Amino acid sequence: MRRRDASGVPRRGRDRRARVLVPRPGHARVGGEPPSTAVIGGGIAGLAAATALAERGVRVTLYEREDGLGGRLAGWPVTLSDGSRATMSRGFHAFFRQYYNLRGLLRRADPGLGMLTALPDYPLRHSGGLRDSFRHVPRTPPWSALGFVALSPTFGARDLLRMNPVAALPLLDVRVPEVYERLDGVSAHDFLASIRFPEAAHHLAFEVFSRSFFADPRELSAAEMVLMFHIYFLGSSEGLLFDVPDEPFPDALWEPLARYLRSHGTEVRTGTPVESVTPVSGGGYRVAHSGGGRHHDTVVLALDTDGLRAVVARSPGLGDARWREGVAGLRTAPPFLVSRLWLDRPVARRRPGFLGTSGFGTLDNVSVLSGWEGEAARWAARTGGSVLELHAYAVPADRVRDVEEKRLVEQLRQVYPETRSAGVLDVRHEWRADCPLFPVGGYAGRPTVRTPDPGLVVAGDLVRTELPVALMERAATSGFLAANALLERWGVAGQTLWTVPDRGRSALLRALAAGTGERRT
Fold it and tell me: pTM here?
């Protein structure tokens, strides 16, 4: 029989070593007059928190400054030059099978996850001609690592002899928060250099992974990168293949989830930016927003880095000096660019739905959106064209934007030469700089879910959870953890959570890794 979480939603996954986190026992729902909670931020973290609270009878008001939900996965309508309507977004996101808690959130609206479709491969390509793929790599460690080395053209016999296996041992026993104690003071670039990975593998595989944090590997904490290897590759048997939504984010994900929340009594207030949160002497908080203000018993701050800093700066009564200093010190990653092109002809049929790239200037990946997203596919079928999306992560802040946009399109033409003769019927460029940066030595200053105010909690992918989660899964997990922290106050059982295994899979390798850590300290 499949095990089920507190909401009756089955855990889906193949990893028998996945870890379950059972909340404190309590009532199924709040009793008496239900308390009220303001969830500020309608991204993944805020939606997770609102869902867990509303399901247990809490009166939830969800405030979102934008007109739609989804946060950094939001979408909005645009009118193309041919008059047709399309949905623009901030770009491609991979829904890995390790995202147990995010997928559990999405199952509220679609128990079978029918809105997700699997891409058959995760290919990588370097400008020098090297190519890698995860399609045929075994999913279960250590065979996943051995299979990748055996199948990858970037690992030759001479390269393997040059590597430093002792320096690589921390990859084999990742625990949180110990990984931060050991490696947060080292950059991802320097850590990989100490292992002496082959230069080609360094650029083709590992740099592609580290840049998924929207940061240059020289600025990224090695602890975050090592944790990522554990989650996606060395610690989990779910593998590195992933799913994608089969329609734009609003249609596939957020509008169905909003309907679910409203059916549980949640008031969803989009287009309502919150200005400040003020503790009230008699208890609770006054949430001031663009339309006025309202009193709530508790508050969840589920904002991006800039939004959290701004609200806390305008709310002098929140937290204590140390907590406020930590929030004020949070940083955002460098700007990134998403370019979407509507072309007048298709790309070659053999092109994958998603391709990670390295060595092509600032281009980090290419998605053939019309190969798997319904809206884009329908436009392509009607016009005979194709819809492509390009990403450039961690663009230097001093770059001229229109120049970079043109360069990105030129880099596409190097990767897919058939696009050189294609006419661009429409193009949209999105520049953003609001992803959290996890810099070297920055872990200790990041906020946790709990704050000095018992009725105030924080959620988002910038939060320290002390669990092996990252990116979208960290956002969802932290949202559920924030809800659980508030539910404990009312004696209500919270959301059961799952993570990938919280340690390396081999006792022998764990012992070796522990020994190297003791020698370094």
Answer: 0.93
